[in-house]
Amino acid sequence: MTLTFHSNLSKDLSLLLNDANDYDVIIQVGENQSTKEFHAHSVILRARSSYFKNAFSNNWIIKKDNMIMFNKPNVTPNIFEMILKYIYTGELDLIEQSGENILDLLVVSDELLLEELYEHVQDYLIKKQSDWIHENIALVLHTVFNFENCKLKDYCLESICGDPQPIISSEASPLLDKDILFGLLKRDDLQIEEIVIWDYLIKWGIEQTPGLESNREEWNEENYEELKKTLNQFIPLIRFMDIFHEDFSNKVVPYKAIIPSHVYEEIEKFYYGYTSVLLPSRTGKIKSNIIKPKLANIIANWIDKRDTMFIRNENVPLYKFELIYRGSRDGIDNKSFEDKCKGKIKSLVLIKVRQSNEIFGGYSSIGFKTNLRKNGCLTFYRSSENFIFSFENNEDTQNMKIGRVLRYTDAIVDAI
């Protein structure tokens, strides 16, 4: 049997780091007034990081008095101290660190090719600093957007799609990177009215176009042409099919000059009832803290009695889910549910089990009626479309279950 003594190993290496008499690397980090010199051992740095293994190669190395001299002006002393402690001992304490520092640590761990640290810092931010992420989501997304295999980037994008309003209304929103905006507009799961997306796009475009006044009444043809160039790649990503005709007339038509002629022709075809090749509605538009858009799409397929993983297109009916009752907002009791849901039709209920990831719910094509008792008797309502379902979690696309109504004459009964 192999024995391991990691605690003593970590302790001894920590002493080696803090009292290094035989170091052969001098690393200068920081710039301006915030600089610090660190002493380290090339053999340890090479063993722990492929970045240092390459950096200390004969082609890169700079020596002075038999010492390897290395500069990292883009890293602060505080961050590099944490990096060195991790490299030598495998220890990391982030409890007292700010969200900004932890994000900087992520950037440096990516640069130094410290994969284990890179993964851990992402998990820590998502699990322990989620509030800070949402308060600074534009900053975080800008920082990590070009990172490969970055779960923090995916987390930010899904968070924005679930609730885009904070980033759209933030002071930094007009400065949102064009690649990020393009990536967001391409997604089908943005849960916000399309006319709001259009309004934001126009505001963003004006900010991104040098010399363009915010007052449209002062614009000339050249100004419209400049805005058109700025938004050329974004306009085709707008789901004009989701914009009501009144909003289209009041908010889109005034900017007709910036819309490519072939796109505008398709919009007119749509409003006049002809077949159009416009992008279809964004799927899974559901304001839910319980399920993610891909599960909403699965439920929509169940409603249509289609294959669970059916991919929708412009010829397939889509659903817009309107939030009418939320327990955390409206109160979790029978009366609150009755007040919000009575008289509604085609209703969907979602429930997440407390202290569990399990989700279950039900769909009724005739709604969840209340006050159905007559003369002390229960009243039954008919529906052959109703069903109940469950998911193991909000990522479950393999083990979900569905049970459709068997006796359609007893689909709904008032049992309140």
UniProtKB/TrEMBL annotation:
Gene3D superfamilies from the UniProt entry: Potassium Channel Kv1.1, Chain A
Domain (BTB): residue spans on this chain: 23-96
Organism: Rhizophagus clarus
One Pfam short name: TLD
Ranges for domain TLDc: 289-416
Protein name, entry field: BTB domain-containing protein
InterPro entries, per the entry: BTB-POZ/Galectin-3-binding, BTB/POZ_dom, SKP1/BTB/POZ_sf, TLDc_dom
